[in-house]
């Protein structure tokens, strides 16, 4: 059994691809306000908000527990509305050898289609895949979309 894994999901939202991408790249500091049901707080540890190489800690509730994920922005592709976050510490590093979040928003009609890809390497073959984290990410997208509609 392979230790490498990838799970993907798409969610249709009402916000434009530009607006959703901007939140996940340039407006990361505002995510707790835009997604209060999922993200409690985001702290910038190194670099500047919205810059490749910036390191931040995300604090959130996952499986009923308050947890933290330390991540670095690896890629920001404004043309393709794509952002990649690489996990470098916290709860996901305890569960996986490596873990990445890839978020891409594609224009669709008045709104957009958000595609989440989670790439990971398990520590052990019998460890679970990342499907519960994928469902968390999809839910967070819907939460952000609902709050963007109010802006």
From TrEMBL:
**What GO terms in the biological process aspect are recorded for it?**
defense response
Native source species: Lithocarpus litseifolius
A Pfam family hit: Bet_v_1
Taking every annotated instance into account, which residue ranges of this chain make up the domain Bet v I/Major latex protein? 2-151
Segments spanning the bilayer are: none
Q: Which SMART domains does the UniProt entry name for this protein? A: Bet_v_1 (SM01037)
Please report the name of this protein according to its UniProt entry: Bet v I/Major latex protein domain-containing protein
Superkingdom as given in the UniProt entry: Eukaryota
Entry-linked InterPro entries: Bet_v_I/MLP, MLP-like_ligand-binding, START-like_dom_sf
